Amino acid sequence: MSLFQPIPSGDDSGDRSRPLADRMRPRTLDEFLGQEHILGPGKPLRLQIERDDPGSLIFWGPPGVGKTTLAKIIAGMTRADFIQFSAVLSGIKEIKQVMADAERARQYGTRTILFVDEVHRFNKAQQDAFLPYVEKGSIRLIGATTENPSFEIISALLSRCRVYVLNPLTEGQIIALLKRALADPERGLGGMNLRASDEVLAKIAAYASGDARSAYNVLEVAAGTAGPNGELTEQIAQDALQKRILLYDKAGEQHYNLISALHKSVRNSDPDASLYWLARMIEAGEDPLYLARRLVRMAVEDVGLADPNALSLAVAARDAVDFIGMPEGNLALAEAAVYLALAPKSNALYTAYGAVQQDVERTVAEPVPLQLRNPVTGMMKGLGYGAGYQYAHDLDEKVADMQCLPDNLKNRRYYFPTNEGIERRIRERMEEIRKRRASVAEKASPPPKKES
After folding, report:
1. What is the CATH number of domain 253-342?
2. CA distance 401 to 395
3. Omega before 327 within 30 of 0, i.e. cis
4. pLDDT surpasses 50 at 146
């Protein structure tokens, strides 16, 4: 007997020992709520299911939006054996066993849908093991992942599957599901004669953040503590709620999406959005020193010399977090984020350094001009080190007309300050220096010869 027998097709949704979320799982596309962008009439996934298209699929979306449910519905509509496979518990040996069973079933005219939950957890070698069977059509692979498939699934397997993105459910959709569970006497809580106001259901839906499973779990806990009149009050709902677990992965796409949102909100001078995205990352458990480092980066990249104090404040926030720790340090990070958002913006320094990097990479690394070299020894002085050097402090203009770049980059300009903040004064100072240098050069040039 195989370790991976197909899941029985019989409906055991009335089994009260199972969690409410599992009992209320939709059995048909008509019962399925949400994902209209791919399941609405004439939409791509619905057409693929109705046409009994045997192609393999990848469902990408957050928890509790229906990835497993959709796979089971597809199996039921296409009359295929459904084998559920966990990437957490299985390895290549188990994969090969399932593939062999599916190959034999195919010879007898039975189709197999292999549903792989958390497919992103398989390594490259394990994902490679699916390829020949997917290609031959021995199995119809349906993978579910909360991670970006383009990062986590090998390109060879990805090219053989259609990727569908599932979105978090809206609060309205979550409320509709909760009402359905309260009214359903067969699979839900209808036999308990419970009552809940729209406000209470909205509170649960907001907590769930688009995750139907989470909402069902809260409702089930609340139902178990309802009073004799069967009313689910706001206090009962609050008691059933635990601290919200925000969807977040410090090494995955959510990490990069949220830090991108924070950085771009700061750059766009939006303090409210900056505070929000910062708090989302802090409350989800992000390393506060990582956030501090990123704020320092924003200070130098997006504020720069338009407000040099921005860097000082960002570094001070880093030191404060390191000194007092969390959660007290969160206000230091918040202070820095708001300051950076409201500071005048300039990427002139960032752009200038990028241009310098290109020149360093693409041009000949010419020797340091002799006038800038330090004649440490007599031999070096004899070779001309330091010859022509002009000590700026000894000059009336405090600026020498002396070339400081190598010959191949003579007169090259990199830094172009903006008119924002302190850079306006920097711009004026640079213009003043240029005028002084021109004056020194004019005084140093020999007078024109008179014609005889």
Report:
1. 1.20.272.10
2. 10
3. yes
4. yes
pLDDT in tens, 212-221: 998 999 999 8
| 309-330 pLDDT, tens digit each | 999 999 999 999 999 988 889 9
CA 31 to chain centre: 32
Could you please state the CATH topology (level 3) that the domain comprising 20-165 is classified under: Rossmann fold (3.40.50)
Q: Is the Cβ–Cβ distance between 116 and 144 less than 8 Å?
A: yes
Query: How distant, in Å, are the alpha carbons of 13, 204, 216, 236, 430 from that of 188?
Result: 9, 17, 10, 19, 74
Where are the chain's structural domains?
20-165, 171-240, 253-342, 370-444
3-state secondary structure of 96: helix
Output the DSSP codes for 354-403. Answer: HHHHHHHHHS--PPPPGGGS---SHHHHHTTTTTT---GGGSTTS-----
How many CB atoms are closer than 10 A to CB 312?
11
Q: How far is Cα 71 from Cα 79, in angstroms, rounded to an integer?
A: 12
- CA pair distance 244, 216, nearest whole angstrom: 14
What's the whole-model pTM score? Answer: 0.61
* pLDDT above 60 for 1: no
d(CA 182, CA 187): 10
Helix axes 288-298, 309-324, angle to 10 degrees: 170
- Say if residues 318 and 293 touch (Cβ distance below 8 Å): yes
Q: Cα(73)–Cα(245) distance, rounded to whole angstroms? A: 29
pLDDT attached to residue 132? 82
Helix pair angle (253-267, 271-283), 10° resolution: 160
| Nearest alpha carbon to residue 225 among 212, 206, 239, 211 | 239
Query: Distance between CA 103 and CA 112 in Å, rounded?
Result: 9
Q: Which residue has the higher pLDDT, 138 or 296?
A: 296
Say how far apart CA 83 and CA 25 lie, in whole Å.
Answer: 17
Task: Kindly indicate whether the domain formed by 171-240 is annotated with CATH number 1.10.8.60.
Answer: yes
Tokens of residue 51, six digits: 């046409």
DSSP state of 147: S
State residue 87 phi and psi, 5-degree precision.
-70, -20
Q: Tell me, rounded to whole angstroms, the distance of Cα 429 from its chain centroid.
A: 42
**Paired tokens of 401:** 């007309």
Nearest to 263 by CA among 281, 249, 245, 247: 281
Decide if 259 contacts 249 (C-beta within 8 A): no
Side-by-side strand order, sheet with 161-165: 81-86, 112-117, 140-145, 56-60, 161-165
